[in-house]
Structure formats: structure tokens, C-alpha cells
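Translate sequence into C-alpha cells.
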Amino acid sequence: MVSTVRGAQLARLLGQWHALPGRRRSPDYAALAGAVRGLLTDGRLALGVRLPAERELAQALAISRTTVSAAYRELRASGHLTSRRGAGSWTTLPGGHRVGSHGLWAPLDDLDGIDLGSAAMPAPAELPAAAEEAVADLSRYLSGAGYHPAGLPDLRDAVAAGFTRRGLPTSAEQIMITSGVQHALDLVLRLLVPAGSPVLVETPTYPNALASLAARRARIATHGLGRAGWDAELLLGAVRQTRPRLAYLIPEFHNPTGHLMPVGLRERLPAAVHSAGTDLVADESFVDLALDGVAPPPPLASYDRHSRVLTIGGMSKPYWGGLRIGWVRAAAPVVQRLAAVRVGMDMSSPVLDQLVAVRLLERADTVVPARRAQLVRQRDALVAALRAELPEWRFAVPRGGMSLWAELDGPVSSALARAAEDLGVRLAPGPRFGADGTLERFLRLPFALPPEDLAEAVRRLAAVRYDLDRVPRPRWSEPAMIA
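Result follows.
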């Protein structure tokens, strides 16, 4: 079944699609085609979606149908749109491109760009040794079927011990091992969120969480984060008023803003969600990446007295994204129900990956401090480059996590991302982190790359930002997809 985006919906996604002052020579049809390609590039417009008819979109944008027809024709020529008489036009992946890890696109041969669209680091030096030891451990499991829906006992024990060390007593029966954090969230949504249910999220928030909620056809309500993070009274009021079926929050070095939820709000949230009949998912993907000696507060679940808080986390950020290991911490009966749901999907996480995870967690005292030190150097390099090259941009220096949330000097995030592709820099623009197409004044900048790459990326961004206002271009070039 092909989904359809209506004219008014696409108009909201497009936002300020017109050429910026420095690009007045670009005809409107080219600007519109470029804006649609930008939505496809950063994942806000999915593959296989039927676009509105030319007349409908023209009315929604208050432009001529001729302009829309020319834009659609350009999109068909570049491979981003396929049309069939009587059936409409739908989005497609151009030849020679691939879908990347975050739902973003990139050319198959695009290997030299600077990727600021992904907050992930290469594998640690300790991984090969951990893998060798895991292979040696594998013989213990070869006589069985290899299916462990809730996870290997050794890994469940290790994850439970980590929560206990943080002040949250946890048993292995409260842990379910998943194939990454995204898989953990998807399982929780399948269990707890019937189609069409209301769900509360922060804005901005993690884009793949929004994608999972859209797949469940959830009705999304948002709580906006300010420069200082959460407004406790507004968030608690939103829970009481909307009474969502589930709330998805990122209290530990929030992605993308880097905020850390204060203790006072953590103490009040579990009781509030219980009173509202709401389950709360706390995403702790970045909890191990505290920088500058910051000591994170106790886990949100520490204040839960009614088994309403489910905590998800994993190995991707502190260790390696290629090791698809995540987990859910919840009440033991909930874990059993999650395992039953999981059997109908993928049965179990790979045994060997789980054994590698056990060995890496044994090396946490070596791996994690090294990661933190590396991130501090990279963050400081990014901050210095931004202050030197783009002093008009505003941001708070994050004290944890992997990304910096910058407020730009204008609503140009999507246009900046499209233009930066020409200079070999891939970005995830601000609207990708919202549910309503706003956040054009913001940009997430991960500091997961070496300092020299970050400095060069900012230099190129500064040149692009200057060009957006001052250098006219005769036509829009086809953008390269970002991963």
C-alpha cells in the first residue's frame, strides 16, 4: 500500500522553500525541486510516498501549476520521482544511491565526504581482543538451538550489574537484550502502544524514535525543550493534560541538545506518569558519555514505585554501532511479555554478538574513559572552530553525549544542508529532529570525528553560509544524498 502526502502536509514540510536572497536567479521550479530533494535526502519524506497532484500542491503553496509541473519534471529527470499516467507520482531512490544508517541517502561512491549526519564513533581498539575471546566462549552454546529471546544469561547479568552500580538495584530477570536501542524501542511500542494512541515526546528529539512512532500511527504530542532544557511544570502539566499512553524522553545527555535532566524533575516524573496512566520510556543511549567529570544523577527509574518506567540503552554510542546490542530494563513480568512479542519478530539476538558485548563490558573501565577523553578533545575542537568561523551561531557547550545543538542566525538549516553537500559535508538539518517541520533555525553538529575533520567541516559550512546570502547561483545542482 502506497502512502500519500497531501498538499497542505507537503507545504508544511517544505516551509520556506523559496530561493534565499543570494539565490534569486534560481527559478522557483528549481528551488521547489531542490527543496523536495532536501526532504528526501534527510528522511523527512519517505520512499514510495505518493506526492499530491500538481494542482493540489500549487494551491497549497499559492503558486502556479506550471511551476509545480516543472519541479516534478526536474525531480523525474534526477530519479527522485516516478510518475505514471492515471496513478500519480511517488518518491523513488535515484540510481547509484543507497539508504544509509540513519535513513539518509548517499551516493554509492561517496566515500570522501565529511559526515556530520551521524553521531557514532569507530570501534575501540579493544574490540578485536574481545571478539577473539567471544569466539572461544562460543563452544559452550553450540550444542543448543541458539535462541535466547530475552538474551544470554551472562549478558543479562552484566547489564543488570551496571544498573546496580549506578544505584538502581536490578536483577537479570529485569533485563531483556535486544538488537540495538532502536529495536528495544520498537518492541516496547509494539507491546504498549496500540495504533492511534497518544504519545508524548520532547522536541527536538531522536528522529528514528519519531519514525517508530509514525509506524505505530501514534498521535504525537510534544514538549519543547528550551535553552536550559526541560521546563518541569510545563512537562508535568503536559502529562496530566494529554494523559498519553506512553512518554518517550531522553534524560541522559539528550539527543540532540545534550541536556541532562535535573534530579528534581526525575523525582516528580514517575509519580506524574503513574497518575496519568502513562508508561515512560527513558532512553539512556548516551549515559556513559559524561564529559568534564560530570556525575549523572541517579537513573530515572530509581524514583519509580509503580513499575511505570522502562529504561532502554545499548552498546552503540560508548562502544560501536556495528555491535547491535541493546537492552530494556523493566519489571520482570514486562520483560517476559516483551520476549513473547519478540518471538514473532526475530527470535533472538546473535549469540556471538552478545558474547562480544560481555567481554567489552568487562573492559568498560578502560574503553569508556578513553572514549570520554577523545570526545572532549573533539568537542573542544568543534566549539573553537564554530566560535572562530561562525560567531553568530549560538549554542551551549554540551557536558555529555556526542552532539552540539546550534541555533543559527536565520531559518536556513535545510538550505544549508542542501548547499553543504556540494562541498562534501553531510548534515542532518534541524527539522529532522521535530515532529512538525519546524526547527529551521537549528542544526545538530556531532563531534564524533577527528578534530581536523571537524575544523574543516566548519570552515566549509562558514563558506556555504556566506554564499547563501551573498552569492547568486544560476541554477540548482542535483544534491548528493547524505548518510
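Note: The longest helix spans residues 364-389.
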